[in-house]
Structures are given as structure tokens and as C-alpha cells.
Design a protein that fits this description.
The complex is a heterodimer. Chain A is an alpha+beta fold. Helix content of chain A is about 35%, strand content about 20%. Chain A is built from six helices and nine strands. In chain A, the strands form two sheets. In chain A, strands 1-6-2-3-4-5 form a six-stranded antiparallel beta sheet. Chain A is globular, with a radius of gyration of 16 Å. In chain A, about 45% of the residues are buried. By secondary structure, chain B is largely without helices or strands. The longest helix of chain B has 6 residues. Chain B starts with 11 loop residues before the first helix and ends in a 25-residue tail after the last helix. In chain B, about 10% of the residues are buried. Classes of the chains: A alpha+beta, B little secondary structure. At the A-B interface, helix 1, helix 2, strand 3, strand 5 and helix 4 of A face helix 2 of B.
Chain lengths: ~200, ~80
């Protein structure tokens, strides 16, 4: 299946199940894993940039409201990981009043470079990363209908990429104003990579 | 989730209230049809093919982000 054929939530889950039994090739590639699971093109260089660019209207901030097929982010903005972390909401294994019942497909959690199931509580317990939000949006594509393939919301791939560059510039301005030096440094590195990518286009 | 009961089925409370001697079978309440009430799986539940792969007692891998640079996409 082509990487860039948008996939439904169930198809994304099937991709992640296959990755679970596949080679350990996903070390520090959480965003690439999740966008490939959904069949989306590369846009943002890091999960941090993808998270900050996610429209507020597409964010789900209560763990109890998370649904199978969403993506979600956990992060500690003050730690030494400048990239953030994204994972897939695999579903509830018990009542929604306990976050430990919500399982996620994620890279690097049980095996370096592997893809495994862990509760959403794993990231805080083992990495110190607090749950940020879930979303039905990634890389400029919307999948509010979790049973349908994602839909492009920003025109062509080139238009989407230009929009993403502006997203990162805006995030840099906001976080510079707020004095979030580490975030700004990470986003500046992302922006430089995006501009270099754009320069390589014909 | 439950489906809407068959409108022809008398409410259980009424059947229980009917005196046995007035024509209502004593077995009627216990024999209320059950085949029109089904439980549909919640689409947000972890499906069995995923659940079978969950290893709750597995040790975590080393934190991939504690040393060196974070992940970067490889670009378009």
C-alpha cells in the first residue's frame, strides 16, 4: 500500500499491528510512524511542530473523550526532548474513568525502534511527559470521521507545506514572546529544515 | 447500546403485576423475549486482535529522548 494513500482508522490500526511484528526501524520516528499509518505525506519535521500546529477546534483535551483512531500527544516542554511525542489511540480496554484503560500504539516504548501497545499513562510514568491532547487532525489532514480516510484541508501538497511553514513561524513568535526558549530553539530547527526542504523542490 | 424494544412486547412491569389467576401465565414475565435486545460493541473499545498483542507486564525500553537530539522527519 502506498504511503500516501489516506487510510481509515481501522486501516491505520492494521498498519500499526503489522509494524508491531515488523523490524525495529521506528527509533525516534514517532511522527513518521503515525503519518504513515494514516497514509499522510511528510509535512512537519517533529511531533512538537505538528502538535503546536493542530487547530484548537480539532483538539480533545479530556482523556475520557479520546476515541479509537485519534492521534494524541504527550510532552514535557521543559525536558531535553525537543521533538515531543505522538501516538495512536488504540481503544479502551475498560471503563473510561481510568486512563490506564486507554491503550495506545506507540514507537520506542517497550522496544527501541519497535511498535507496541502501552496505556496512555505510560508516557508520564516512564518519560515524565504529560498528556497534552488528542486530535482528529494531522499534517493538514482532517479525520474527524474516524472510519473514513483523512481529508486534505489546505489545498495541494505545496500549499499545505507553505501553510505549515507559516504555522511554525507563528508558533516561534508566540513562544518567543512567552519566553519558552527550549521550544523556540526546537521550532527554529524545524523551520530551518522545512525551508531547506522547500528549496530542494523543483 | 441496546435497540428499541418491540412495541408489541408488553412492559415487564405490567406483566409482573398481572394476577396469575386472571389468565396471565406465571411464566410470562420470565419468558419476555430477549432476542430483540442486542449489545453492540463500542467502536472505541480495543478490539480483540489488538488486545491479544498487549503485554501489560513488559518492561519499558530506555527512554529514547533522554540523550542526543530528538527525532526529525526525513523530509518530503
Amino acid at each position: 500500500m502506498s504511503t500516501n494513500a489516506p487510510r481509515t482508522g481501522d486501516q491505520a490500526a492494521a498498519f500499526l499491528r503489522a509494524a508491531h511484528t515488523g523490524p525495529l526501524t521506528w527509533h525516534r520516528k514517532c511522527l513518521q510512524l503515525q503519518r504513515e499509518a494514516r497514509g499522510l505525506p511528510a509535512v512537519y519535521p517533529s511531533a512538537l511542530a505538528a502538535a503546536l500546529a493542530t487547530p484548537k477546534a480539532e483538539r480533545v483535551t479530556r482523556i475520557a473523550d479520546l476515541r479509537r483512531g485519534m492521534v494524541a500527544y504527550s510532552d514535557d516542554p521543559n525536558d531535553n526532548n525537543p521533538a515531543g511525542h505522538i501516538y495512536f489511540i488504540a481503544g479502551w480496554s475498560g471503563p473510561r474513568d481510568s486512563p490506564a484503560n486507554l491503550l495506545t500504539w506507540s514507537s520506542d516504548v517497550l522496544r527501541t525502534g519497535g511498535v507496541d501497545l502501552v496505556p496512555v499513562t505510560f508516557y508520564k510514568a516512564h518519560w515524565g511527559d504529560t498528556f497534552q491532547f488528542g486530535a482528529t487532525w494531522l499534517n493538514g489532514y482532517n479525520f474527524a470521521d474516524l472510519d473514513a480516510p483523512p481529508v486534505a484541508t489546505r489545498g495541494s501538497l505545496g500549499e499545505n507545506f507553505d501553510h505549515a511553514i507559516e504555522d511554525v513561524r507563528k508558533a516561534i513568535r508566540l513562544h518567543r514572546k512567552a519566553g519558552h526558549t527550549q521550544l523556540v530553539n526546537a521550532l527554529v530547527a524545524d523551520l530551518q529544515q522545512m525551508l531547506a526542504t522547500k528549496k530542494r523542490w523543483p | 447500546m441496546t435497540e428499541t424494544p418491540d412495541p408489541q412486547t408488553p412492559p415487564q412491569g405490567d406483566a409482573q403485576a398481572a394476577p396469575v389467576g386472571e389468565g396471565a401465565s406465571a411464566a410470562t414475565p420470565a419468558e419476555a423475549p430477549t432476542d430483540d435486545t442486542t449489545t453492540e460493541p463500542d467502536p472505541d473499545d480495543l478490539p480483540g486482535d489488538d488486545a491479544s498483542l498487549y503485554q501489560p507486564d513488559a518492561d519499558p525500553a530506555p527512554n529514547p529522548y533522554t540523550d542526543g537530539p530528538g527525532e526529525q522527519e526525513t523530509g518530503l
